[in-house]
Specification:
95 residues; alpha+beta; three-stranded antiparallel beta sheet; 4 helices
């Protein structure tokens, strides 16, 4: 998509989020919603994982109040994860 006035590419919200992940940022769902205006951050992260193939990891940690806060980050999948993906593709083709 481009801006008609300047003919420069306009990044979508999910593309902006992906750029932040690629820059090494770890973000919570609340931070994603506030910074990028994404209404459902977990759905956007799922879309980046399932439809676009990015290995985005959820890292839950407890804060000082004992609440579990999940931070998302972009990572490199293990060989086991890649192998499981190939097995799932092969099984889908076989059926």
């Amino acid at each position: 998509m481009t801006n008609a006035k300047t003919a420069t590419p306009v990044a979508t919200k999910s593309e902006k989020l992906l750029t932040a992940f690629q820059a090494g940022e770890e973000l919570t769902a609340k931070q994603i919603a506030a910074r990028f205006g994404i209404g459902n951050p977990t759905a956007t992260v799922s879309d980046l994982r399932l439809n676009r193939g990015f290995a985005i990891y959820a890292n839950p940690k407890k804060n000082a109040k004992g609440e579990t806060i999940t931070r998302y980050r972009l990572g490199t999948p293990t060989k086991a994860v890649v192998a499981a993906g190939y097995r799932a593709l092969a099984a889908a083709k076989a059926s």
